[in-house]
Amino acid sequence: MSANLTALAYLVASVLFILALRGLSSPGAARRGNMMGIAGMAIAIGTTVLDPSIVSYGGILAAIAVGGIIGTIIARRIQMTAMPELIAGFHSLVGMAAVLVAAAAFLSPDSFGIVDESGAIKTASRIEMALGVVIGAITFSGSIVAFAKLAGLLSGDPVMFPGQHWLNLAIGVVIAVLIAMFAQTPDPQWFWIFTGLAFAIGILLIIPIGGADMPVVISMLNSYSGWAAAGIGFTLGNSALIVTGALVGSSGAILSYIMCKAMNRSFISVILGGFGAVATTARSKTDKPHKEGSAEDAAFLLRNAGSVVIVPGYGMAVAQAQHVLAEVAEKLKSQGIKVRYGIHPVAGRMPGHMNVLLAEANVPYEDVHELEEINPDFSNTDVAIVIGANDVTNPAAKNDPKSPIFGMPILEVDKAKTVLFIKRSMKGVGYAGIDNELFYSPNTMMLLADAKKMMQDIGKEL
Amino acid sequence: MEVDPLIWQLSIFVLAIFVGYYVIWSVTPALHTPLMAITNAISSVIVVGALMAAGPADFSAAKVLGLAAITLAAVNIFGGFVVTQRMLSMFRGKKK
């Protein structure tokens, strides 16, 4: 294939990728979009394999087969509740692939056509591969830490030590200096040293960030994986890779922005980490009176309600309560009660986490509403059920300027006539480590039990 | 005077960021998890670099790295598209 035809094929692949993302504006279009993404990938790979410089097919086919089988098996078997760690794991693979490709390009630049007349790697290519390898390494090790935290292999608590931010800053400066030196003289040792340092800083950047800030972290790593791909794209002079890297990079950046906004926190404060670390001390009077109820009481209230709004949170995912919850909702709907779901953008551990779990439980797409859509309706709602969520419903975010979550947009369940708050016990606090005045409100009934068990009991009573 | 190819690449890059910006804002928040899964899959187009490293006939360290990168990227490509399809197939409208 001529170089021009190859470049055109990459252009087609890039357009297909853009259409794949564009499809995600609605579920139906998204399914077609995914097919376009697959087609784009097939074109990109097919075009590359036809390149005359690629002559050895055996190993390539074997590698694709092995990776493809592993990937397919994982994707088919994974539980929907484990989606955040799966995504983090996938990000780490993109990061590592970027590191390996950059290292390969560094070791045999001839295969990539990035040498000048004297046989040395071009200066521009050196800078590009340095950026690609550094961002790739940070993506890899950062995602591994995020994966470990999400999968429960590491504690989700922030890990802090004195001088942490200065250490990170120092490593960052050293990496920048080494890249500059590498741009001057292609001394291999600089390449390996800044690659190693980048792996280290990836770990250091993510360990101070607590479990509840994971939606921002995952989005950020998503963004990094894109920038790493773009860096490699510059090295290879491959437009499909540059375009895809830019798309993914901006996608992750926008998601990070949306998540930060939903918590009313700056990106910098999330990155610096430590939120919720000093938690429990902030908890005030625990002996305030609250009203407890049983599944029977809850079922009675629900039966007599005209409209119900359900607010799920991470606790629902942990308890795997989405299926039972959906069954209860169906029972209520069959009795002519209006049932809807209100989703906070940061509910769960990644953007859109709750939506996927509800979809898995066959909840109709139309019943699931975003914060802005559902908030005006709480004042006309008879019963709001809060299941496994906490801080995203805390009225202190609106009323108490001293609260650490003040200013964060919340689901205004306190405006509903009655709130059923399902929670394991009165002891636990949300991720912000603060009390929720909603617990002690006269129109709140606390249902203290495991979320799944409680929903099953309510289901029996209905 | 001829324009350095790097400038063309940079132009493509900057324009693609803008395309990404507008396309991503039109994604419905309900589909943010599938969005992450599919961006993951397509960013594995980095496999084209791995293919170039693994392509030459002669055995070399770069070839080994390339084959390893192909394997990782293939996990991501297949895994990413399959899991996206699985998630999207669950998002259905009203049941009959």
Explain how this protein is built.
The complex is a heterodimer of chains A (462) and B (96). In chain A, α5 packs antiparallel against α6. In chain A, β4, α16 and β5 form a beta-alpha-beta unit. Chain A is α/β, with parallel strands linked by helices and 462 residues long. Chain A is 57% helix and 7% strand. A 6-stranded parallel beta sheet of chain A has the order 3-2-1-4-5-6. Chain B has 96 residues and is mostly helical. Chain B is built from 4 helices and no strands.
Q: How would you summarize what this structure contains?
A:
The complex is a heterodimer of chains A (462) and B (96). Chain A is of the alpha/beta class and 462 residues long. Chain A contains 17 helices and 6 strands.
Which helices and strands, and how do they pair?
The complex is a heterodimer of chains A (462) and B (96).
Chain A: H1 3-22, H2 27-49, H3 58-77, H4 83-107, H5 123-150, H6 164-184, H7 188-206, H8 214-236, H9 239-262, H10 267-272, H11 295-303, E1 307-312, H12 314-319, H13 322-334, E2 338-343, H14 353-360, E3 368-370, H15 371-374, E4 383-387, H16 396-399, E5 418-423, E6 444-448, H17 451-461
Parallel strand pairs in A: 1-2, 1-4, 2-3, 4-5, 5-6
Helix pairs in contact in A: 1-2, 1-9, 4-5, 4-8, 5-6, 5-7, 5-8, 6-7, 8-9, 11-17, 13-17
Chain B: H1 5-25, H2 32-43, H3 47-54, H4 61-90
Describe this protein with a few key phrases.
heterodimer; A: alpha/beta; 17 helices; 57% helix; elongated; B: mainly alpha
Biggest sheet character of chain B: none
Q: Report the radius of gyration of chain A as a whole number of Å.
A: 25 Å
Shape of chain B: flat
Largest interface comes to: A-B, 113 and 81 residues
Distance between the termini of chain A: 68 Å
Helical fraction of chain B equals over 70%
Shape of chain A: elongated
Main sheet characteristics of chain A:
6 strands, parallel
Euclidean distance between termini CA atoms of chain B: 67 Å
Oligomeric state of this protein: heterodimer
Specify the helix fraction band of chain A.
55-70%
Determine Rg of chain B (CA atoms, Å): 19 Å
What topology, given as strand order, has the largest sheet of chain A? Answer: 3-2-1-4-5-6
Mean pLDDT of chain A: 90
Quote the average pLDDT of chain B. 92
Q: Report the sheet-strand fraction of chain B.
A: under 5%
The total count of strands of chain B amounts to 0
